[in-house]
């Protein structure tokens, strides 16, 4: 069994050849399966808002929602590093960020927190790290900024925005974050940022030149009803579930289920005794 990755080991992962495998999970059984499959890091993403809670974006997700899901994940994957997303507006000031990240560390036993943004969140990053809370950054397509971005659009496609991304990445790395998620940016840009900074980059929709990859559980397993271009379903679980439920429905309607094999029985002696008592007058 692999040892649980620590923030310190994560931070120095660049020395290793093998890319890191991150996967999101939102409940006990998903986390159990992710741990059994040997993922390096489980991210309790605020993507729980769209994948599990049925919202159109991650913005409605609250601290209480994240605590609720992260506690389940921790119970399912006690031996895997667990990073929990600070949700929208939960880290606008250092004191607020500290108390919210502290909740994740104490109430869910998280190994670190992830937050979105570059130089504008450095005061928050400093406060968390000063209190020994490992921080993971997230740049590029940052879903909590969906309105500012004008939709879920690929970022850093112009020379100016590539430079801004690089400056943000460098600043976050210099302030001590343990790893950086790069989402929805061109592959060459992600590879260049990866070369330029000393901490590992974890890509999602960022090509093959990062130090690791992360996928949303539902996209990875074929549970979603639609997929972004970058997502590859590695199993067809949605189809298996729908056809299983259809088969169940059909067997109930034809009384093929439950069969004798799936029923409980009473002995003839007990049943006959009951019957004669019931019909004695
Ligand atoms: O919320 C999430 O699942 C994420 C990943 C997409 C990186 O932030």
From TrEMBL:
CC cofactor: Mg(2+)
Alphabetized SUPFAM superfamilies for the sequence: Phosphoenolpyruvate/pyruvate domain
Active site: 183
Listed transmembrane segments: none
UniProt-listed InterPro entries: Pantoate_hydroxy_MeTrfase, Pyrv/PenolPyrv_kinase-like_dom, Pyrv_kinase-like_dom_sf
Chain positions recorded as 3-methyl-2-oxobutanoate binding sites: 46-47, 85, 114
Pathway assignment: Cofactor biosynthesis; (R)-pantothenate biosynthesis; (R)-pantoate from 3-methyl-2-oxobutanoate: step 1/2
One Pfam family here: Pantoate_transf
Gene Ontology MF, one: methyltransferase activity
Reactions accelerated catalytically: (6R)-5,10-methylene-5,6,7,8-tetrahydrofolate + 3-methyl-2-oxobutanoate + H2O = 2-dehydropantoate + (6S)-5,6,7,8-tetrahydrofolate
Family matches, as CDD domains: KPHMT-like
Cofactor note: Binds 1 Mg(2+) ion per subunit.
NCBIfam families recorded: panB (TIGR00222), PRK00311.1 (NF001452)
Known partners and oligomeric status: Homodecamer; pentamer of dimers.
PANTHER family linked: 3-METHYL-2-OXOBUTANOATE HYDROXYMETHYLTRANSFERASE
The protein, known as: 3-methyl-2-oxobutanoate hydroxymethyltransferase
């Amino acid at each position: 069994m692999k040892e649980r990755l620590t923030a310190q080991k994560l931070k120095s992962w660049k020395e290793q050849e093998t890319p890191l495998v991150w996967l999101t999970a939102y409940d006990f059984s998903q986390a159990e399966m992710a741990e059994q499959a040997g993922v390096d890091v489980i991210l309790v993403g605020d993507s729980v808002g769209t994948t599990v809670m049925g919202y159109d974006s991650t913005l409605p997700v609250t601290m209480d929602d994240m605590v609720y899901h992260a506690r389940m994940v921790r119970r399912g994957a006690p031996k895997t590093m667990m990073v929990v997303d600070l949700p929208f507006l939960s880290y606008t000031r250092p004191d607020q960020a500290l108390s919210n990240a502290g909740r994740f560390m104490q109430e869910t036993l998280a190994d670190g927190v992830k937050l979105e943004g570059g130089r504008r969140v450095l005061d928050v990053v400093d406060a968390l790290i000063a209190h020994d809370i490992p921080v993971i950054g997230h740049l590029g397509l940052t879903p909590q900024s969906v309105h500012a971005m004008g939709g879920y659009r690929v970022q850093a496609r112009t020379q100016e925005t590539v430079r801004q991304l690089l400056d943000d990445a460098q600043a976050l790395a210099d302030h001590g974050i343990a790893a950086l998620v790069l989402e929805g940016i061109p592959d060459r840009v992600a590879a260049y940022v990866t070369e330029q900074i000393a901490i590992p980059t974890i890509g999602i929709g960022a090509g093959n030149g990062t130090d690791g990859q992360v996928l949303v559980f539902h996209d990875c397993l074929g549970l979603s009803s639609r997929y972004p271009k970058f997502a590859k379903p590695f199993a067809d679980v949605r189809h298996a579930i729908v056809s299983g439920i259809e088969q169940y429905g059909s067997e109930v309607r034809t009384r093929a289920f439950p069969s004798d094999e799936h029923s409980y029985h009473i002995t003839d002696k007990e049943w006959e005794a009951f019957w004669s008592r019931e019909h004695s007058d």
